[in-house]
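Homework help board

Subject: predicted structure for assignment chain

Our instructor gave us this sequence and asked us to write out the predicted structure in token form, then describe one feature. I got the tokens but I'm not sure how to describe them. Can anyone check?
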Amino acid sequence: MSQPPAISPADVIEVRPDEGFDEARVAAHLRGKLPGSERPLTVRQFAGGHANLTYQLRFGEGDDAIEYVLRRPPLGPVAPGSHDMSREHRVLSVLWKAFPLAPRSFLFCDDPAILGAPFFVMERRRGVVVRGAIPPEFGSGNDADANRKLAQVVVDVLAEFHAVEPAKAELGDLGRPDGFLERQVKGWTERFERAKVDAFPLAEELQRWLLDNLPASPAPTLLHNDWRLDNMAVAADDPGRCVAVYDWDMCTRGDPLCDLGTVLGVWYDPDEIPASLNPMPTLAPGFLRRAEAAQRYGEQSGRDLSQLPYYLVFGTFKMAVVLQQIYFRFHQGQTRDARFAGMGEGAKALFRLAGARRP
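My token output:
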């Protein structure tokens, strides 16, 4: 196993007070199960992300320390079928063989006595995660060539992933592809109903529209189900080279255009107002416009995109529900993370955008 460089302060923070766990108990559980795990453990937390909690496990000190990543569900009740650590571990324990950009998972634990929730431990990948703003190493948004590479890598890696044969990835029995899209629409509708804080008629109208206008799905592929730029890491010296794809807890087999609709749902064009959670800097000069991104995916995948407007609405609706679920946990006092206070209004903005994007 290669040894990682020293901790980058931009990657991790001290563990938030309400998101900590018994580090000694976790260290004892892992001891002897992972290379290097007999050394003293230091835990820090990855600052990004808004749902699953992710921690850096560092065994030992100095340049020969060995690092891993621990993933667990968010605090408080979670929607059925979401934040599934068992599924994510199963996928990541084998997907790396056919899709090397997926980090390898080494260990899964479902004993609540260890950490209080199921968790898994995977390899640590080093790279740059680009969220709302393009970082200085890529020109702070002023380098049109770098911006275009960031846009292209999102589309290119998605097409590459959708070309993976599920059976070759040892995931040929994952999920239930038949009827996938309809179940997805109904499932996200139910999640919104459980996370509602107040009435929002447009969301209910969108639910009916999505069910009334279901298209026929193309042949199924492996799906990530939350494809976005901030779920990827790119090389520090090349924004066009992906080094890792993260957040596989909803991976399954089904309609590949759901992945495309998810990422295009947060791919804002200049005439659109980004919602409060904008994980992609799509308005930066040189970044592909949404139609250009869709065309690039169509060319690389060979898929018919004539029904893509439907998937764009669904992807936008789904992201609105994600924000609503996050806000609901904050509203219920299940998390005190101040970043979540405005996500209720962000969800409403995305519902309005989904309505405006209907063909």
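Reply (TA_rk): Your tokens look well-formed. For the description, you could write something like this. The longest strand covers residues 238-245. That's the kind of observation they're looking for.
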